Amino acid sequence: MRFLLTCLLLTLAFVPRVAAAQTVETPAEALTRDAAEYAKLFAVPQEEAERRLTALEASVPVTDEIEARYRDRIAGISIQHRPDFRINVYLTGGDPVPDETLQLGGMTVPVAFRTGARASRDRVIWAVTWHQAQIRAMFTRPPAMGLDPRTGELVVLITSGEAKSGVEQWRAKVEAVAGVPVSIRVVDHVDVNLSAPPLGGARLEGTSPDDGKRYLCTSGFAVTDGTRYGIATAAHCLDQMSFIAPDHSEVPLDFVGQWGWGYHDVQIGTVPGPLAGLFYADTARTIERPVTGSRTRDQTRAGDFVCHRGERTGYSCAVVELTDFAPAGDLCGGACLPTWVTVSGPTCKGGDSGSPVFSGTIALGILKGATYRPDGSCAFYFYMSVDYLPQPWSLVLGATPTLPGVQPPLPPVAPPEIGARGQP
């Protein structure tokens, strides 16, 4: 019975090797699939899209080095896709830095340095960390806020109702409190977690003890603490969830715990056997990808092209907007820290909570919530970086189930601390 249960779990979520229809993509095949989405979004040939995505992945250590080199001056690093493909670096101060060219993924990638930013990234993040409560108290509805790495400004998203008293007045008021350059954007929106009435890469369902209704989420990545194996999803999903197999049978997860404050939105449920590091990467759940690595939030740039697979919306790809975002309201057991990453819409719906966010076979995060416009359309979604998996849990690698102790998992990154990025 234990063997049968384990096989069923693996078949449903991460190691579905028994069904003939299942396909495990190689990293090259994953690149091709994602590049097709990039080609449609940016109207470039498939070959160009593949070169660009290859260059993007190869550029991660390069931008890490640039950030370290200009640590005291960095206001932001972003990826530009139109009218040409390049990396933009925005620096404080007036001392010029010559542009560079890089050979990445078989193509030449320009790196353009712009100077004159009024505040560094560290100063803006510190401003949000220390003055968030004051800024939130200024508005009728606590606003979302974050760093725009394309301008080096603190972006505050307010409603049109708040804006009636004057956008420039609000900018001056917030800037006086924060002590950094501020940009006010008027966006009528509602930030919500994406759990939904019932419906995760795989489908998760559970019955709420409060109202007796069925609720839906999406499973994220396979994780391990070195002895146990489990599935990570969003903390705001129900504690007791089950996989819904293709034949509609249910396999319950053994709830370990949930972490849902400040910078966390993750829960873990275990299964009685080892898991492979596989996740669904297509809408129909017939194609799986192995996790071959991860990318930290610090390594993620505005303009990065990423994908996710949610139970309600299927497989879709878009670009990262902000990498230091604090959602509006009290979605994190109170105010959220500026540690969330936003990705542009239009694809997000309730039930996608907990779903994997990835680039090729690189794990990036676990989807938390989304911002909706008044007409119900998705403005953007936001996710928790896999950096913040609770210790000692970490990602499992590879397409083959491994026994405890046989294959070391990816180590987790230490949780964020105030001042971790430096002081203003």
Work out the helix count.
Answer: 7
Give me the secondary-structure category: alpha+beta
The main β sheet shows up as: 8 strands, mixed
Q: What is the subunit organization of this protein?
A: single chain
Low-confidence parts, pLDDT < 50 over ≥5 residues?
1-21, 192-201, 418-424
What CATH first level of one domain would be assigned? Mainly Beta
Overall strand count: 28
CATH architecture classification of one domain: Beta Barrel
From the spread of the alpha carbons, the general shape counts as: globular
Quick structural gist:
The chain is α+β, with helices and mostly antiparallel strands and 424 residues long.
Helix-strand blueprint:
Elements: H1 2-12, E1 23-24, H2 27-42, H3 46-58, H4 60-69, E2 74-80, E3 86-92, E4 100-104, E5 107-117, H5 121-137, E6 144-148, E7 153-158, H6 160-163, H7 167-178, E8 182-186, E9 190-193, E10 203-207, E11 214-218, E12 222-224, E13 229-233, E14 242-244, E15 250-252, E16 254-259, E17 266-271, E18 278-280, E19 287-290, E20 293-294, E21 305-310, E22 314-319, E23 325-326, E24 341-344, E25 356-359, E26 362-372, E27 378-385, E28 394-395
Parallel strand pairs: 1-19, 3-5, 7-8, 20-26
Antiparallel strand pairs: 2-3, 4-5, 6-7, 6-23, 9-26, 10-11, 10-14, 12-13, 12-28, 13-17, 14-15, 16-17, 18-19, 21-22, 21-25, 24-27, 25-26, 26-27
Helix pairs in contact: 2-3
List the defining traits of the structure above.
single chain; 424 residues; alpha+beta; Thrombin, subunit H; GMP Synthetase, Chain A, domain 3; eight-stranded mixed β-sheet; five-stranded antiparallel β-sheet; globular
